[in-house]
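Lab notebook, page 48
Experiment: co-folding of the full assembly
Goal: obtain a model of how the components sit together before planning crosslinking
Operator: M.T.
Materials (sequences as entered):
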Amino acid sequence: MEAPATRVLIYEDNPDLRISLSQLLGGTPGLELAGALGNCQQVETDIPRLRPDVVLMDIDMPGINGIEGLKRIKAKSPGTSVVMLTVFEDNDRVFQAVCAGADGYLLKKTPPAKLLDAINEVKAGGAPMTPAIARQVLRLFPKPVAPRQHEDSPANLSAREQEILGLLVEGYSYKMIAHDRGISLDTVRSHIKKIYEKLHVRSMTEAVSKALRQGLT
Amino acid sequence: MEAPATRVLIYEDNPDLRISLSQLLGGTPGLELAGALGNCQQVETDIPRLRPDVVLMDIDMPGINGIEGLKRIKAKSPGTSVVMLTVFEDNDRVFQAVCAGADGYLLKKTPPAKLLDAINEVKAGGAPMTPAIARQVLRLFPKPVAPRQHEDSPANLSAREQEILGLLVEGYSYKMIAHDRGISLDTVRSHIKKIYEKLHVRSMTEAVSKALRQGLT
DNA sequence: CATCGGCTCACATCATTATGCTACGGCGCC
DNA sequence: GGCGCCGTAGCATAATGATGTGAGCCGATG
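Observation: model returned without errors.
Model output:
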């Protein structure tokens, strides 16, 4: 008396990934591939036609993006669970996805086994999320509820570190910062290393993005 | 030298559980028991005194309850991570805890191994939650949020270029973009060169900054 | 059908960043 | 008065990014 298979629909514009996801799901007992599409232009008709229980939705797609696709699905069929797939743990998108009613949020690099777990999890009423994303969701939460302008610690950055982060945001290079502040290039490196640790990032672009999105400037 | 041990502070009014948690943590390499207290009456002084990296906080305690303790910790020391422990997946408490800035939310029945994982997870910037609680958090999230929309200035960027700029903003490296989009590294270079020309910038950081500030995402 | 822009790819070279380790003076806190 | 954090600094190596030049394919447009 097996339960009927869980019907899974994939939206993913990268053909390689789409195919490997399809194969993964198709080859798993208890799951049934309802479809695997490269865009969500026809999402409104796809859903009633394919009747998925769970949708895996890539966030970054040309044309109608995943967030928009999510909204349309939820508008038509609120009961359908939608798990967002993304390469980034980007704050803004997480926020948008969560607001639009996403039921889970995973990174594309999630190993296949975890992905299958996640599908079962949503089916069981859970909400699969990577730890880092879960953290972001928690951080996002209090703000809309209580828009306190709390000058809560700028992510623990020291005054000097904030200053330098500000310059990064302005597009300054290490050299420019060193010259501008009259310190050595190596000192700039030191500061930036610490900023990276504290912000949990690994590149200037990530730091800039995080700074701008979290108002650390 | 090894990384300094993670200092963990426990608030748990049940002596049995408090002791077994203490033993669990005390016997784990990389963790250091900063303290194990039966109430959070002195939370304001406990924190600076014991300087924990992570606090495990029982929600249901006599006197000052866990939510209140959490608030006080966050008021004094926003950088300290607090993981709530609870017996029930009660909606209202989850809501309150999340609003007060909890960094994780686990059930007391969580197996010891998972608990240790969770501590490492918060330390690494994650937010351990049980799936069911994660789902509640998502549901609690205020939906009526009007996402700003700007279809205004495509800034002359082609669709592909905007797409790639989006990835840059997310902190993607050339390599990651190439892999994700299934194109060669050199093609990524080409696109980015053109993006730079069109935006009049000369580095990833400038491009990211400009993109975020002008809503090109 | 010829031209043009967008997308793809290659090769080359130099500049900049990322990361790890080490170190020292100053300051505030037990 | 020892400990930890901040700001400063240097050195070394590996990885990534910036820029130039050139080229093939395709679809749209004139």
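Interpretation: Chain A touches chain B through 59 residues (CB under 8 Å).
Next step: discuss with group before ordering constructs.
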